[in-house]
Design brief:
Elements: E1 7-16, E2 19-29, E3 34-39, H1 45-53, E4 60-65, E5 68-72, E6 85-88, H2 100-105, H3 114-124, H4 141-153, E7 159-163, H5 171-188, E8 191-196, H6 199-205, E9 208-213, E10 216-221, H7 223-228, H8 233-239, E11 243-250, E12 253-256, E13 259-266, H9 270-278, H10 282-289, E14 292-297, E15 302-305, E16 313-321, E17 324-331, E18 338-344, E19 356-361, E20 365-369
Parallel strand pairs: 3-8, 3-9, 6-7, 7-8, 13-20
Antiparallel strand pairs: 1-2, 1-4, 4-5, 9-10, 11-12, 11-14, 12-13, 14-20, 15-19, 16-17, 16-19, 17-18
Bound molecules: adenosine-5'-diphosphate and magnesium ion.
Length: 371
């Protein structure tokens, strides 16, 4: 139903006073797709949304939607109300004195088919039509957020911006509301940008993800690709549990405490050095082999073998947590590298402290320069 359009942010910068809040932000959100921007509090997420919405002006760069320039490029900025952009805030910001129907119809003044559009928006946001006459204080938090979404969708915006719309909700309700919102955006094929400080929310929201660090977009791309090959160890750890093992690069493999592991993605720079010197000097190859690196593994990649012919780890502790068991392991002989694996109870039978096991890595590592 929406007039979905491609949103392009090109080299945008914004300062408040002498503080640079956004620095050289470029982002492409294709027509009808969803992108999540994730970052710590204060990293500039809301400011970015406010620039797209037209509540603030960029100092540099340009923002365009379809073939319309919204801001920048020396031209005059398009006023917020003419941009065709819907905005959903953290607390919903519903009008307390208006009913659900009144809230959703608010942006439809002048439209002849108002009643039908309100029904359509309620249905998109999975709102029971029986709620139409209620006031915001008579709704649950999740219902209020879905009304806020329906109100934003009703004028059929080209883009919907969502600023941490689920963070005020309890865990169970958050998950359910999140799913309802994604389905509504999917059904209406609306281009959407969500900002959040929740990594899982960002990774599951849609087609794109951007990692915001101190006003810069540190990495952007397809969520699964960014998760599997983060640009830096810091981004790896920010997006989810990550084990970083000291390693060296040796003929296409990472040599670490767990042995030789294939490299899924080499971001260490050592690979390039290795190729360069490979054909020249034997001494050069040795140097490349000994380049210190960090190998990144996601905990889900670890496989535990108890029938180990080549043990490389020792069980140091076992802790039962509800339906799973946490197994603490010391890798190799060093005290430094320890990991915790969460496994079903039946897989840990006989794993007492002191037992030698073999830890394998499924799917290869991402290699970074040593810090
Ligand atoms: P986030 O949404 O990621 O938490 P914000 O975009 O709200 O971050 O803020 C980023 C930084 O910009 C913060 O340091 C904040 O204090 C500052 N900031 C935001 N808006 C203004 C403003 N209107 N005037 C001055 N500083 C601002
Ligand atoms: Mg914010």
């Amino acid at each position: 139903m929406a007039r979905a359009m491609r949103l392009v942010i090109d080299s945008v910068a914004k300062s408040f006073g002498s503080t640079r809040v956004l620095d050289d932000i470029s982002l492409d959100v294709p027509d009808g797709s969803r992108t999540a921007i994730v970052g710590a509090s204060g990293s500039g997420k809301s400011t970015l949304l406010r620039l797209i919405a037209g509540f603030e002006e960029p100092d540099h760069g340009r923002i365009s939607l379809g073939d319309r320039v919204l801001a920048g490029a020396g031209g005059r900025s398009m006023p917020a109300h003419r941009r065709g952009i819907g905005y959903v805030a953290q607390d919903g910001a519903l009008f307390p004195h208006l009913t659900v129907e009144g809230n959703i119809a608010f942006g439809l003044r002048g439209a002849r088919d108002r009643a039908a559009r309100v029904r359509e928006a309620m249905s998109l946001a999975a709102l029971d039509p029986a709620l139409a006459g209620r006031f915001p204080h008579q709704l649950s938090g999740g219902q209020q957020q879905r009304v806020a979404l329906a109100r934003a969708l009703a004028p059929r915006p080209a883009v919907i911006l969502l600023d941490e719309p689920f963070s005020a909700l309890d865990t169970g309700l958050r998950e359910q509301t999140r799913r309802a919102v994604i389905e509504a955006l999917e059904r209406s094929a609306t281009t959407a940008v969500l900002v959040t400080h929740d990594q899982d929310e960002a990774l599951t929201f849609g087609h794109g993800i951007g990692i915001m660090v101190d006003g810069r977009l540190a990495q952007s791309g397809v969520p699964s690709e960014v998760y599997d090959s983060p640009a830096t160890p810091e981004i790896a750890a920010f997006l989810g549990a990550a084990v970083l093992l000291p390693a060296t690069l040796g003929s296409g493999c990472a040599e670490c405490v767990l042995g030789r592991i294939p490299i899924r993605h080499d971001r260490s720079g050592a690979g390039a050095a290795g190729t360069e010197v490979a054909g020249t000097e034997v001494a050069g190859t040795v140097a490349a082999d000994s380049v210190a690196s960090l190998a990144m593994v996601r905990p889900a990649q670890f496989e535990l073998r108890t029938d180990a012919s080549a043990p490389n780890a020792t069980v140091t502790g076992i802790r039962r947590i509800g339906p799973i068991t946490e197994v603490h392991l010391r890798l190799g002989d060093t005290e430094a590298s320890t990991i915790e694996l969460r496994l079903p109870h039946h897989e840990v039978i006989g794993l007492d402290p002191g037992v030698r096991v073999e830890v394998r890595v499924d799917g290869g590592v991402v290699l970074y320069p040593s810090r």
